Amino acid sequence: MDLVRLDCEFFDRDCVEVAKDLLGKLLVRIWTPESDDHAPVRLVVRLVETEAYLGLVDKASHSYKGRRTVRNEAMFMDPGTAYVYNIYGMYQCINISTKGEGAAVLLRAAEPLENVEWMSHLRNCRSKRTKVAVFKIRELCSGPSKLCQALDIRKDLFDQVNLCRSDELFFADELTMDASVVDVNDIVESPRIGIAYAQEWSSKPLRFYLRDNAFVSTFRRSKTILPV
C-alpha cells in the first residue's frame, strides 16, 4: 500500500471539517516489537468514526472556558498535535488539535488494514485481563481506547507530539486509490457518546461515522441520516 502523508494544512481548518474529512483517512503507526532484533512493523487502520470538540464554547471539551492545564496543553498547540490522555485510570484516548483555540478531534474507531495480527497482540498486551483474548477483526479498534491499545498509542510516547512531523505515528491517504475519499452521503451525524454532563451540548450532532460500517464503535444512530 503506497501512502502520502497528510500535512499540517489539513488540520489547520475548522474542527468539524477536519472531523468529517478524517473519515476514510489512514492512521499509520510504525511500531517496534519489544522482542529483540525485530524490525519495525507498519500498522495501518482506516478511520471510520470521529467526534469534534469545539474548544472554549463547548461544554463537553476539556478546554471549555479556556481551561488550560498541563494535562490538556496539547489542545492549544499547533494543529495536528496529539492530545493523549488517561481515562478511568487505565485506558487512553487520542485527540488531534485543529484550528480554533482548544479545539480537537477525538479518534473513536477504525478499520484494521495492515498487520492485524500485531494489533491483536497489542490489545492483549495492553489489557488488564489475565486471559489471552481472541478478537474479531471488527472489535480490535471499535472504540477510542481500543484504538490506542491496538496501535500502542500511549501518553508517554505521543502526547504533545505533532503528528505532521512524527515518523512513528501519522495520518495518510492511499496514493493510487480513491478508497480514502468518502461520499458525503455516507457520513452520519449523531450526538457524541458519554457526555450527558454537557447539558445542551450533549445533544449537538458532533459525532461523525460511516453509515453501515461494521467497525464503528456503537451504532447509536440519529433519527435521520443526515448528509454532511
UniProtKB/TrEMBL annotation:
It catalyses: Hydrolysis of alkylated DNA, releasing 3-methyladenine, 3-methylguanine, 7-methylguanine and 7-methyladenine. Its EC number is 3.2.2.21. Binds MBD1. Binds SSBP1. This is DNA-3-methyladenine glycosylase. Belongs to the DNA glycosylase MPG family. Keywords: DNA damage, DNA repair, Hydrolase. Coiled coil: none annotated. The keyword Kinase does not apply. The keyword Plastid does not apply. Hydrolysis of the deoxyribose N-glycosidic bond to excise 3-methyladenine, and 7-methylguanine from the damaged DNA polymer formed by alkylation lesions. Gene3D superfamilies: Methylpurine-DNA glycosylase (MPG). It is an enzyme of class 3 (hydrolase). One of its GO terms (molecular function) is DNA binding. One of its GO terms (biological process) is base-excision repair. It comes from the Eukaryota. Pfam families: Pur_DNA_glyco.
